[in-house]
Design brief:
Helices cover about 45% and strands about 15% of the residues. The protein has about 425 residues and is of the alpha/beta class. Helix 16 links the parallel strand 12 and strand 13. Bound molecules: uridine-5'-diphosphate-glucuronic acid (UGA). The site of uridine-5'-diphosphate-glucuronic acid has 21 residues, from helix 9 and helix 11.
Length: about 425
């Protein structure tokens, strides 16, 4: 089976590499020529654990190649996946211009027996509209919608062992072709669910909005914990043990970011609005998450007695979450920028050494490691939940800082452990910080 994947962002590149690992012949396409040249030389443009090894292995085996020539790449393909970006427009709606550009590019050359699969996250009705767009150009194709649920930082594992595969299909042939493509997953008993196009499209937005709401809910519970003597980590544990709730996405923090939750919740809000359907839970999730960053700045300022002008603040972690170098819509962008506005001297260490972050924060000092970054600090602020920040040697850190104040926006430490190492500790969703400050 020959597979072409158009778009080499997170979803496209991971899907292409993983399908080649399944044993299929895969061509990955992108109109960014420099990116394609880099990929042909084995250089991956993103930080994604495990992806580089699989890319090299499958390129070497001759199953995986890269090109910027869409027309040639789709000629013999049995399946063509569209995995280009659908960023937010200024009104919150999804920008589908890359999707339609890709469809337009392939329309005249695609093999007429191929199945076209939309993997980009698109508003409900788009797949059907694409089918019509092609028909209007005299091209009659099976068009499928196949949402991708992989997470950055665990993308290969999520692709290889997904919780489910959702396929919006309208023909028996498309069902068979896609069943063959995902057959390697049958050995793990992964549910493969066939639905209508609209159901598959909405299932993606509904899943991301629900997870975003879950994160926002626990962040609001954290606010309450800070005022009533409860510990949010323990509340989350107690809630998560109920199988109906589940223990994931209940970690309180600085609010969700990244390229998906903010974009997809806004697109869902816009889409529901256009249909005249009220979705107050989604609306409030977006607003509450937007306000969260200001609350985090207030928390840091309060912990520092509103006196950070000329003070050294050591920031640990700026990517939107751990195990990625992705800075898109990271809470750190707003938080650190505010601290800079208040006159703080910022020093940042991020384990990904993110180039995106270096472009965003051009006037800060970059640390080589967490300890070096904390030398002479008046306050240490953890923003991203990188594993290496979960077990810092606090005694060693204590010897390096000027003022032992740890502000942990991911609440990664037991309060007593930090206090006994000589630090004042300010975290998220614990009453102790109220007693302290
Ligand atoms: C998310 C979804 O989890 C994937 O299923 C989906 O495929 C992807 O979007 C997408 O649409 O492409 P991702 O954006 O990589 O994946 O990141 P998540 O792990 O979901 O985290 C999103 C944000 O929520 C991060 O800022 C993270 O720090 C925050 N978060 C997550 C919390 O604050 N607490 C939690 O308990 C979990």
């Amino acid at each position: 089976m020959k597979i072409t994947v158009i778009g080499t962002g997170y979803v496209g590149l991971v899907s292409g590499v993983c399908f080649s690992e399944f044993g299929f012949d895969v061509v990955c396409v992108d109109n960014d020529v420099e990116k394609i040249i880099a990929l042909q030389m084995g250089n991956i443009p993103i930080y994604e654990p495990g992806l580089g090894k699989l890319l090299l292995k499958n390129t070497k085996a001759g199953r995986l190649s890269f090109t910027s020539d869409t027309r040639v790449s789709v000629k013999d393909a049995n399946i063509v996946f569209i995995a280009v970006g659908t960023p937010s427009k200024s009104d919150g709606s999804a920008d589908l211009s890359h999707v339609y550009q890709a469809i337009d590019d392939l329309a005249s050359s695609i093999n007429k027996d191929a199945v076209l699969v939309i993997k980009s996250t698109v508003p409900v009705g788009t797949t059907r509209a694409i089918k019509k767009f092609l028909l209007d150009r005299g091209v009659e194709l099976d068009v499928v919608f196949n949402p991708e649920f992989l997470k950055e930082g665990a993308a290969v594992e999520d692709f290889m062992h997904p919780d489910r595969v959702i396929l919006g299909v309208e023909s028996e042939k498309a069902k068979q072709v896609l069943s063959h493509a995902y057959r390697p997953l049958y050995v793990f008993n992964i549910p493969i669910i066939f639905t209508s196009l609209e159901t598959a499209e909405l299932s993606k937005y509904a899943s991301n909005a629900f997870l975003a709401m879950k994160v926002t809910f626990i962040n609001e519970i954290a606010n309450l914990c800070e005022c009533c003597g409860a510990d949010v980590n323990e509340v989350a544990l107690a809630m998560g043990l109920d199988k109906r709730i589940g223990d994931q996405f209940l970690q309180a923090g600085p609010g969700y970011g990244g390229s998906c939750f903010p974009k997809d919740t806004s697109a869902l809000e816009d889409f529901a609005d256009k249909l005249g359907v009220d979705m107050p839970l989604v609306n409030e999730t977006i607003r509450s998450n937007e306000n969260r960053r200001g609350k985090m700045v207030e928390k840091i300022l309060r912990a520092c007695d509103y006196d950070i002008k000329g003070k050294n603040i050591s920031v640990l972690g700026v990517t939107f979450k751990a195990e990625t170098d992705d800075m898109r819509d990271s809470p750190s962008i707003d938080i650190v920028s505010e601290l800079i506005k208040h006159g703080a001297n910022i020093r940042i260490y991020d384990p990904s050494f993110s180039e995106q972050a270096k472009k965003i924060f051009s006037n800060v000092i970059w640390g080589k490691n967490a300890y070096d970054n904390c030398n002479d600090a008046d306050a240490v602020v953890i923003i991203t939940d990188w594993s290496e920040f979960k077990a810092l040697n606090l005694k060693e850190l204590r010897n390096r800082v000027k003022n032992p104040l740890l502000i942990d926006l991911r609440s990664m430490y037991p309060v007593s452990e930090v206090m006994s190492s000589g630090f004042s500790y300010c975290s998220v969703g614990r009453y102790f910080e109220k007693l302290e400050f």
